[in-house]
Amino acid sequence: MGTVWCVAAHTHDGIDWTSRLASLRRAAELDADAIRVIARRLVRTLPDNPTVVDVGCGGGGMAVALVESLTARGGGTVVLVDAVPEVLDAAATAARSAATYENDTPTTTVRVRPVLADLAAERPADIAGPAHLVWASRVVHHLPDQRQAVADLADALAPGGWLALGEGGLESRCLPWDLGIGEPGLQDRLAHARAEWFVRMRESMPDSVRLPAGWNTVLTDVGLVDVTAFSYLVDHPAPAKPAVREWAVRQVEWLAEVGADRLHAADRHALTRLLDPDDAAYLGRRDDVFLLSAGTVHLGRKP
């Protein structure tokens, strides 16, 4: 649901994010209301004309929300950082479309600056700092050395600036307990298979370093103060609108792909039916799919 860090077409995590761009944009649309609330909360205490950095801008949802929030308080600069050109271009286009033009001139109250960069190889402070706010949602866990990545993001902050990490929360859910085909509880088994895939993904990542601590501990360890967190809910209940059904189909497709070798044959058969537009069980036509997830944002301030 949210923004994802990308560091090449096939990234350090081996994921082809370019092929997932449509899914990222669809998720950004469904998360938009929650993300707007977060953006307003994060920018309201910043100084006038602040610089805000969106690291791993993904579908552009937070980029748009940051532009809107900065416009409402008088302007600023939004720096978008990603290393997949197609992803960066999509986010920049969305952000620029949200910028307010003054007197129909090309001067905007919010400047949008896209930066193509791999933060596993380049220092954020050199390409985007000093920043009054750095937003990094579901980004750091895709980088080889997560603690070092957080330290590098903290270095990009101006004194008094805030680092906001969107990490953790609760797994997105979209399926009822009993779908009428296969064994009940398919969503839980998909979540378990995804967790196993994630462990393997991290283990197979070149130069991967484990992070045996919570994000609040990491923020404190890298020298940030006033460390805290809050959580937010994304809730699109059944009966689902078409956009939610489309999201659910693509989400289950992805879960089936990454968990294929960890699922029982009966579950794989059920998934084939759920993802087949010609099958009566097709998710895209069901009124009982939904979207429910909870994300957590961890905050720390540079002294």
Task: Please name the defining characteristics of this protein.
alpha/beta; seven-stranded mixed β-sheet; Rossmann fold; globular; single chain; 303 residues; SAM-dependent_MTases_sf
% residues in beta strands: 15-25%
Low-pLDDT stretches are 1-10, 101-105
Which fold does the CATH topology refer to? Rossmann fold
Largest pleated sheet: 7 strands, mixed
In N-to-C order, the SSE pattern is HEHEHEHEHEHHEHHE
How would you name the oligomeric state of the polypeptide chains in this document?
A: single chain
Q: Which range best describes the helical content: under 10%, 10-25%, 25-40%, 40-55%, 55-70% or over 70%?
A: 25-40%
What's the average pLDDT?
A: 90
CATH architecture classification name: 3-Layer(aba) Sandwich
> How many individual helices?
9
Looking at this structure, what is the CATH superfamily?
A: Vaccinia Virus protein VP39
Number of domains: 1
Organism: Saccharothrix espanaensis (strain ATCC 51144 / DSM 44229 / JCM 9112 / NBRC 15066 / NRRL 15764)
Domain Methyltransferase type: 53-163
GO biological process, one term: methylation
GO molecular function: methyltransferase activity
Provide structural commentary.
38% of the residues lie in helices and 22% in strands. It has helices at residues 21-43, 61-72, 85-98, 124-127, 146-155, 186-204, 215-221, 242-258, 265-274; strands at 51-55, 76-82, 110-116, 131-137, 157-173, 225-236, 291-301. By secondary structure, the protein is α/β, with parallel strands linked by helices. The longest helix has 23 residues, at 21-43. One of its GO terms (biological process) is methylation. GO terms for molecular function: methyltransferase activity. Keywords: Methyltransferase, S-adenosyl-L-methionine, Transferase. InterPro entries: Methyltransf_12, SAM-dependent_MTases_sf.
